Amino acid sequence: MASVNKVILVGNCGRDPEVRYLPSGQAVANVSVATSSKRKDKNTGETIEDTQWHRVTFYDRLAEIAGEYVKKGRPIYVEGRLKYGKYTDKDGIEKNTVDIIATEMQLLGAREGMGGPSGDEEGGGQRRPAPAARPAAPAASKPASKPSTGFDDMDDDIPF
Predict the structure, then answer these.
(1) pTM for the whole structure
(2) Rounded to whole angstroms, how far apart are CA atoms 132 and 113?
(3) CATH number of the domain residue 15 falls in
(4) Considering its fold, how many domains does the chain have in total?
(5) Residue 77 lies in a domain
(6) Average pLDDT of each block of 10 consecutive residues along the chain (160 residues)?
(7) Labelling 17: which of 42, 66, 88, 147 has CA 20 to 30 A away?
(8) What residues contact 81, with CB distance under 8 A and at least 6 apart?
């Protein structure tokens, strides 16, 4: 029987990543990601926000990319798997841990340094259009032919 261990998080980074290298040369980066949910208290009607903190670990090239681009407070999408562990603290008490071992990561929100006329770093929520993939055809060229749809050989007679 197959099994699945998959986690998807969309949240905000709680701190800048800590990147280190193992003796083997493998890069490792750790970051905390906050996810929040809101609900109304049945008794008071007050909105209660519940924030959960998740420890995320990146390895290899993904760790290097995270170390370079992930910043505190920025929104991020992380896909990975759960890893459970235990350790003994300085007082001799055994503690349980839950880590997300990231397999994919996507930075969300506006890019840094892409600010608009006001010069803000977040870009004001606007995206700049990508440059044209190819130059425009000269005005003196022949008229453009109609693109083929794959149905060009069918009759126009509709049977209903």
Answers:
(1) 0.62
(2) 21
(3) 2.40.50.140
(4) 1
(5) yes
(6) 92 91 93 91 88 93 92 93 93 93 88 47 37 42 50 54
(7) 88
(8) 5, 6, 7, 100, 101, 103
